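Recap from last week: sequence in, structure out.
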Amino acid sequence: MTALKQPKPDPRPHRDAFYEVNKAALWQLSGDVVLVPDPDNLEGLTRDALTKISHWSDMTDEDIPRLGIVTDSFFRFIDEGQDATVLTLWRSGTPLIQQIDGEPCEAAVELVTDAITGLRPLQEKWHGLPPLEAEIEILAYRKGFVAGHRPKWLERMARANLAERDVDPAASDEPKGEPLAANDNVPQHDERLVPYLAAFAAKDAFISGSTLFGAVVGGLTGKIQILADGRALFTSRLGSKFVELPVKPKRLVASPFRLKDPASIPEREWLHARHYIRRYLSITVGAGGGGKSAHAVSEALSMVTGRPLLDGQAGLSAPLRVWYVNAEDPQDEIDRRFVAAAKHFNVTEESIADRLFTDSGRDQEFVIMRQEGRDFKVCEPMVNDMLATIRENAIDIVVVDPFVSTHEVPENDNNLMQRVAKAWRRVADEGNCSVELIHHVTKGNFEVTADSARGGGALKDAARSVRTINAMTKEEGEKAGLDDHRGFFRVDFGKTNMTAASSSSQWRRFVTVPLMNGKGLIKSGDEIGVVAPWRWPAKSEATAFVSAEELEAIKRKIDGGDCRDSVQASDWAGYKVAEALRINLTDPAEKKRVRRMLEAWKEAGHFTIEQRPDYKGIERPCLVPVFHTMQN
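Predicted structure tokens:
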């Protein structure tokens, strides 16, 4: 008989041992393969004493008894054991399971035991969840958030991560067209939570399975869950303590209208200059460098002091508390502008008291909406911080300069601009204050109206009051008798294009204020432009010194002479005025004065304009006197 051929002994038994342990580590215990220093003495063993190996070549046959699997961070699997480390010593037979690090956690040891005995392999809590919910749980694990604590920004970050990987947040691993198995653990949308979503949802709240995340009840943020008996339970975490409140959803109701006594209806709470109103959004629109920021500074000082620095309406209210936020300039530039304005208006520290707050966007975050992946989200932490600051300091008015630096949305997208405006309006409403946004206009040389604001019209439509800023034109400067029209501008309300002489316009001018902060020979230092009030000269002032007899003589000189209305014409009517009053028109200032006199007389009805042919037969506008008394 031929002897049976004996198999050759395995020359590398440690390779097979490694593969077997590695398989158990990957598929059962969700851990790493390690070598322990002494398998017969595990007392006092810590994770730092273990040697992690990733290939059978990292060990020898003698190391087989030292093989083990280390599993840690049990918060991935259960809501405890954040720092627990459990060692499973292989021993090629009955494994030895022992916790070697972290706070004592019996649940962690039991979990590993169940996985070894085949009851249930270790799987992370997010296993089998929809992509968005799984990503939220992964982030919560990485951030170390305890059970039930899922800040709303986790969803925004999760959506951004999924967008970068081009994963649909609503995707499902279920086979299409096949019903879910009765024991499928994937949470489904619980329709019973829909009324709670309508009643208690904060921004960015969402329903996942039988839980509504991002609910707000009684000022607390937490989650609402549908219990087994059908009741809804609200859970909010305050520090390390849970507060549970039973909740019932609110129903939409139709409120009947009843006529009221007009005296019982509260008056709109105008705060300043018929522009700032409590709980509403207001906007000031103007071209770059046109005076928007400087005007806001002077106006802020007027509001906090209660003094009519720019117009008479400021003194109608008590001093207000103002928070000026410049999202672009550094704090020292903000200081220069306020100190210069205070110097010009003689505003003291005592008159400001504790009512003025100024901050720079370079030092703090004032962005209210950011782009996250393919979506745009309101920055809830910033909004909540701002509201808390407004309430803590009893702020009446928040001035945000400029609006464009507080968001990342495309300005021409009306839907997104509406969301941004709604977010700022929410600050005004919940903060019980007025929010003023300083906004730019589209490029171009034109008359600025409310419709000139850059981007979609949704921002303008969301505001209660819109002001526009327009620089004085050269023609307006000449009518005002100014040698230089630059540095003057007007403030108008709404979409109405005001004329230069309109009493509805508020005129301003720039004055230069040296801070005297220079060193060496240049003592003046920085020179800051401060906005101050300016009154359009009354036309009556231009003709106040002309007697009725002199006006009558001027009319007779012009009468019948076809004197032109244009100052450029060689037979301009102003030459007759200068002749009668002995005015030297070679002086440009005197020529402007005569022009203002004629404008005043035309407005008063002493002259009219008629089209008359010149020597070429071309119709030209000519000045015709109106005689109010009988001529001799």
